[in-house]
Design brief:
The protein is α+β, with helices and mostly antiparallel strands and 159 residues long. It contains five helices and six strands, in the order E-H-H-H-H-H-E-E-E-E-E. The protein has a four-stranded mixed β-sheet with strand order 1-3-5-4, with no helix packed on it. A hairpin with a 2-residue loop joins strand 4 and strand 5. The longest helix is centred in the N-terminal third of the chain and has 17 residues. It is flat, with a radius of gyration of 16 Å.
Length: 159
C-alpha cells in the first residue's frame, strides 16, 4: 500500500500485521481495555484533558490545517473524553479495539485499513466544496483510501 501525504507537518507510522483474524470478542483484550480505561479515568478529568500534551498537539495540528478542533473533534480526544466520562470504549472487533486502545494510550488518532482492499492512502487538505470520496472527512481534511476494486465506501476502516 502506498501512502501519500500532502499535509504540512504530518508524519504517519505504519504497522502491518499478517494473518490477522477479526474476532468480535476476546476476553483478554476486553480486560486490557477495562484496565486502560480505568487508568485513564484516574489520570484525567474532562477538564484536564485539554492540557494533556498529545491532545494539545493534535488540536494545534488541526488548527494549522484550518480546522476548529472543537467543531471537528479529533477521534483520539473524543475517545478519551468518553473514557473519562465513564462511558468506556465501544467493543467492535479485535482490530478496531486495538486501534482505539492505541489511540487513547498515545492521544493520537489511529486508522486501521485492510491492505488487501486498499492500494493507496492519500491524506490532504481540500476545499469543503470538493466532491471526493473519503472515509474520514472533517472540514478541510480528507483521507482518501484508493481501493483495488471496491468503492471507497466499502473499504474496511476503523478509527
Amino acid at each position: 500500500m502506498e501512502i501519500k501525504i500532502e499535509l504540512p507537518g504530518v508524519k504517519l507510522g505504519v504497522v502491518e500485521a499478517d494473518d490477522v483474524r477479526v474476532a468480535l470478542r476476546n476476553p483478554g483484550l476486553a480486560k486490557l481495555m477495562d484496565d486502560v480505561c480505568s487508568r485513564k479515568r484516574q489520570e484525567f478529568t474532562v477538564e484536564s484533558l485539554a492540557e494533556a500534551e498529545p491532545v494539545r498537539a493534535v488540536r494545534a495540528m488541526f488548527r494549522e490545517w484550518g480546522m476548529d478542533p472543537s467543531k471537528y473533534r479529533p477521534s483520539s480526544e473524543a475517545l478519551l473524553r468518553r473514557v473519562v466520562q465513564g462511558k468506556g470504549l465501544y467493543r467492535v472487533s479485535n482490530v478496531v479495539d486495538i486501534g482505539n486502545l492505541g489511540s487513547i494510550e498515545t492521544g493520537w488518532p489511529y486508522g486501521c485499513y485492510d491492505s488487501s482492499c486498499v492500494t493507496e492512502l492519500l491524506a490532504k487538505l481540500t476545499r469543503a466544496s470538493a466532491n471526493k470520496p473519503g472515509i474520514l472527512k472533517a472540514g478541510p481534511f480528507l483521507l482518501i483510501p484508493r481501493a483495488h476494486s471496491a468503492a471507497p465506501s466499502a473499504i474496511p476502516h476503523a478509527a
